[in-house]
Fold this protein.
Amino acid sequence: MSEQSTPGAEAAPANGAPPTSSTSTTEQESRWRRLLSGSVGRNLGLVAALLVLVIAGAVTAPDTFLTTSNILTILRAASILGVVSIGMTLVITAGGIDLSVGSLIGLASVVATLAAIQDLADQLHWIVMIVLALAVGVGAGLINGIVIAYGKVVAFMATLAMLVAARGLAEILAERRTLQVGNRDFINFMNLDIIGVDMLIWIFGIVAVLGWVVLNRTTFGRRTVAIGGNREAARLAGINVKRHTMWLYAISGLTAGIAAVMYLGRTTAGTSTHGTLLELDAIAAVVVGGTLLAGGRGTVTGTVFGVLIFTTLTNVFVQNNLNSSVQAVVKGVIIVVAVLLQQRFAKPSGRAT
């Protein structure tokens, strides 16, 4: 007797037979869905958003927006925020937060421009100023990390305390004055153009590449993602969570110190007001870029796009003489939409991008 098949049911392909067209189509759709819901899809969305802003700028300010000088202006504006955001990406990937980076920039810039330090730089080399600025950032970051990891203080409160203390100490050291950088060699170096690109942009690019390598190609990066995904599981897997957390905040402090040096080169002055509220912009850029606030997934590439989106948005508003208050509202909307999309679609995947 011949076999009977249920009406409407598809016959399963025999062993070794090629899949049916419907099965092949389903698999392709599944692959595309996984691709678009992953890092590629997120980055494509960020690229699309950036292109929309570029088109808007080109249409509304056709004579100035797409000029080389304006593009370099956008990249210069993105450089300092970008450097700080790279350090913030690592911290948030591990499930932490650092509210102190803006104040650390102010403190590091003041320490590096104190009269005694500048005299020492004149006698030895201007590299002394850079070393001191980086040391202040790393030292304050280590204090944050120790208090959070070993003192078991919530990261929000510990870094908030550092935010207040560092800004106050900077005001005391500077006596609420702006300290001018007197070393011309340092200023000339920080304002170098290499193949037509500013030193600040080169620094941002180098830090971004190093951040990507650390997060994606090192054991340190994998441990960072693991801690953010499940802290207790990471500890049981043999990761020294406390020590790792301490070094994460030291790295965040280091990027704040680098940003302080960049401020000194751009403004030729150190002041306690450098970096004011920059921590909020950094957190916003990291979140918009696709790093989960809850931890467990980080993306340096997305952070770079997030920084470029915000700086391009600012440039579009400046080019068209639009109200800065409206710009703040638009930024707020972008942040809320990014967080809502994270809650709706994103889940910690234990991966870095």
Observations:
- Residues 42 and 206 are 23 Å apart (CA to CA).
- DSSP finds 15 helices and four strands in the chain.
- The beta strands are 179-180, 193-194, 197-198, 269-270.
